[in-house]
Amino acid sequence: MRELRIRSASEQLADFLRAELRSRTWTGTMPGESWLVSQLQVGRDTVRAALSYLEEEGLLLPAGHGKRRRIVMSRESFTGNFRVSILLHSPSDRQDAMVHEIIHQLNLRGHQVTVAPKSLTELGMNVDRVSRMVPEVETDAWIVCAAPQEVLTWFSGRSTPTFALFGRFSNISVAAIGPDKFPAYQTAIRRLAELGHRRVVLLVPEFARKPEPGPLILRILQEMEVHGMAVGPYALPDWEVNPVGLRRCLDQLFKLTPPTALFMEEAHEFFAIRIDLAERGIHCPRDVSLICTDDHPAFKWCEPSVSCIRWSMRPIVRRIVRWADHVANGKDDAKKDYSKAKFVEGGTIGPARMGR
User: Fold this and answer.
1) Three-state SS sequence of 298-314
2) Three state DSSP letters for 186-254
3) pLDDT per residue over 197-206, tens digit each?
4) Which pLDDT tens digit goes with each residue over 113-146?
5) Using CA atoms, how far apart are residues 312 and 27, in angstroms rounded to an integer?
6) 102 within 8 A of 115, measured Cβ to Cβ
7) Contact 338, 180 (CB under 8 A)
8) Which domains occur in the chain, in start order?
9) pTM for this structure?
10) Looking at residue 2, what is its pLDDT?
11) Which residues face 180 on adjacent strands?
């Protein structure tokens, strides 16, 4: 079941004003805040927030204090002819709340959105297979989700505008966004160090560690080393990102020198690890601490509460919509952005159990 997301009053008002702009209710300049408050019977803060959304999207241009905002959109921007295709990371992303919100917001803007017939995992993260499928999709722009460096490099060499949603995009000439997780990782690692943890393992997807660890992983390993934690292959094991590969990895990790703390990326990995370890008689947080580097609605049902890294999808969705509007209007946009993330300590971390 997808996460239910309640839209704020300012977001709903922004949708209404956007539709009015699209229908040419106003041209030249936008009505002032006081007029909108009076006519629409909404609060001034709601009006200001809605207008700020439209400014961020490039539809309105502020003209200075006390002056009306200038309308800078064109009718051609919303003809519905601009096509955006999404290349998902895995088939399960079709049920992801953020993917649905991205599609919803792009449709509101008048863009035609489709999902590629196969995901990156179904294509084996293989550049040759991606290069055979992509030309078969008729589209004007691509959103590529959590892709490895080689795939994004291939997209960057094409004329079709590409946006990297997560993935190894730091050194690739494409527009991109992802949460800046390092400060949250840093807080979590320091907390684990305070609790006596020295054997900490990062279970990260293949694209984050191959062909060599990415910048984020390198910074995390450096932070671990500062706090006396083991680094190298032990801290960053090579594993196949599937259920069988995960079980094999846990077999090796807990065979001789078991870790006292594990980081994992996905909620389904968290639940699978917790069940697997419980079957081995290894319990969280008594024997091992667990931290998931993404939050998930299911965590609200967990007791003890799940330690995780939390970030908002709202600025990410807004950035993608703004990029689509830019490229639809023929503007170059290869800007990279990062959203904020924070570590939320829950009951799945505790003192390192000595002697294990």
Assistant:
1) HHHHCCCCCEEEEECCH
2) HHHHHHHHHCCCCCEEEECCHHHHCCCCCHHHHHHHHHHHHCCCCCCCCCCCCCCCCHHHHHHHHHHHC
3) 999 999 998 8
4) 999 999 999 999 999 999 999 999 999 999 999 9
5) 34
6) no
7) yes
8) 9-73 (1.10.10.10), 77-178+313-337 (3.40.50.2300), 180-311 (3.40.50.2300)
9) 0.75
10) 42
11) 340
